[in-house]
Amino acid sequence: MKKRFLYLFILVLTGLSACSQNDYNPNDSVRVVNAEWSVDSLDGFVLKRYHFDEGTLFCSPQHFFVIEVPVGSPRRLAFVSDTALTGVSVFAEHSEALAAINGSYFDMTLGNPVCYLRIDGVQLGENTPGKADSINRKYYQYATLALRNGRPVLSVPDSNRMSEDNMKERDVMTAGPMLVWKGKDVPQRDDRSFVTKRHNRTALGRRPDGSYILFVADGRFKEHAEGLTLFELQRVMRWLGCSSAINLDGGGSSTMYIKGGGVINYPSDNGEHDHEGERPVSNAILVL
User: What's the predicted TM-score (pTM) here?
Assistant: First the structure.
């Protein structure tokens, strides 16, 4: 009896240890790559969905939504913004978009962008300075997404928070941090809950062949989808084939809309695991 108890005790400790180090579990990459994704082929892009049950990925339940836009697709991306906070679904419907996700960070009280934003040549937002530093940019402003002919181009800006002024593209959105760059994980700070705690996440990534993906992970629903740390999101984007990937606004803002299906993920702002918890946001990324 004592030996049996000891054996069970060791198994429990082993399981706890594995969960505490889930970022480094090699089986997690296999689970993502080999998952039997629900796949819908739409007009010029593919929608993929998968729900990882309790404990099957990073020792937690996860719910992922992926839009894949292949090379040669007629689809193009566009940015949209408003002075009043607006739901991603409303942005998309007014623009007759085929799909949409939320974009970059914003002031939830004032409604203005807090990162650089330029749409069709008009600057609508700037990188807000830190409390004690008016020159350098904040941690979440170290990745830039520009559009060239409607396709995403990622870059890592320097520390000067005004450097986007020199970019030639008419559509520029700054967010961050950069997750993957030139095929490698970008080092992340481990002293901020924004990085180390699990939240809903939104990201965009490019693959080596020029195709790209829009990604949303649900979060803040312990029984259904815990969400991801930035370290976990970084790995997922790389496992999905991205050689570069940018983190966008997340948390309650994370939303994915599909024309004809409405909001398809489970935004958490209403505290209910349904499709009604969409948070009004300052800007969004459209698939046209």
Answer: 0.92
